[in-house]
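Sequence in, structure out. Go.
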Amino acid sequence: MSRETSQRSREYLTIAQSLLRAVQTMTDRAIASQLKALADDYERRAEKASRADAAKAIARPAANGEHE
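Output:
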């Protein structure tokens, strides 16, 4: 499961980076602003997925210790 979360985090970051590259070439400021907001959202999603992955990694050994 942690591999899926890590992969998801990387995918979110890749999308955010692609959007930010598109923003740099935009001449329409309104569209560029919307794409920037979308990129920011994907960066937040990546951070959230990364934190969830870390929490699961910490919880997993604790749960295994309780069952022994």
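Check: The first helix runs from residue 2 to 25. The chain has a mean pLDDT of 87.
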